[in-house]
Specification:
Layout (H helix, E strand, L loop, with lengths): L18 H20 L4 H4 L11 H20 L16 H4 L6 H19 L7 E3 L5 E3 H27 L5
Antiparallel strand pairs: 1-2
Helix pairs in contact: 1-3, 1-6, 3-5, 3-6
C-alpha cells in the first residue's frame, strides 16, 4: 500500500484580532496551506521534481520549512541547542536535495511535531522580546512571525506550481 498525504482542514484566515492572534493566525493559515497543497498525493508524487530544471519538490518544501521553523523559533529565539532535522554542514541544501519518498510519512510527522514545539517555545513570550543573531542583528519575536509568514507565502507559491504540474490541481 502506498502512503498518501492526508487531507487537511485549513483553519480560516484571521479577521479582526489582536496583533499576536493575527500573526499566529496567518502563520497557521500558511502552515495549513502548505499541507493542503500536499494532500491526497502519494509519497512518490510528493518527491517528484515536477518543474524542471528546478529541483524543488513538495516533500523538500515541507522538510525546508520544518528546519526554518526550528531555526528561528527554537534555535535562535529560544536559544535551544538543537541540530537541524535535515540540513547538514556537508550540504546546506540537503533539506531540498535529499528527499526520499520512503520517508514521506515521517517527514509530515516531524513537521507537525516541530510546529507544536515552536509554538510552545514562544507561547508565553512577548512580541517585543528581542534577541541578537550571530551576525549582530537585534531582532524581536514580532520580526520572526512576519518573516515566517513571508517565508511560507513565498514557498506556498512554489507549492501551488509544483502541485499543478503533478496532477493539474490549482493552488489550495
Amino acid at each position: 500500500m502506498t502512503w498518501t498525504a492526508p487531507h487537511i482542514e485549513r483553519r480560516p484566515q484571521p479577521q479582526a484580532a489582536g496583533e499576536r492572534e493575527m500573526l499566529q493566525g496567518w502563520l497557521d493559515w500558511h502552515r495549513d496551506t502548505l499541507l493542503a497543497n500536499c494532500a491526497g498525493l502519494t509519497a512518490e508524487q510528493l518527491a517528484r521534481r515536477s518543474a524542471e530544471p528546478s529541483t524543488l519538490t513538495l516533500l523538500g518544501l515541507v522538510r525546508h520549512l520544518t528546519d526554518v521553523e526550528r531555526a528561528w523559533f527554537r534555535q535562535r529565539f529560544a536559544r535551544e541547542r538543537l541540530h537541524s532535522h535535515y540540513i547538514t554542514e556537508e550540504n546546506l541544501d540537503s533539506d531540498f536535495d535529499d528527499v526520499d519518498p520512503a520517508e514521506a510519512e515521517s517527514v509530515f510527522a516531524v513537521f507537525r511535531e516541530e510546529i507544536a514545539a515552536c509554538d510552545a517555545a514562544v507561547a508565553d513570550r512577548g512580541l517585543d522580546e528581542a534577541f541578537s543573531t550571530t551576525r549582530g542583528h537585534d531582532l524581536n519575536l514580532r520580526w520572526i512571525y512576519a518573516h515566517m509568514i513571508e517565508e511560507y507565502a513565498r514557498h506556498n507559491g512554489h507549492a501551488d506550481l509544483l502541485r499543478e504540474r503533478i496532477d493539474g490541481a490549482a493552488g489550495s
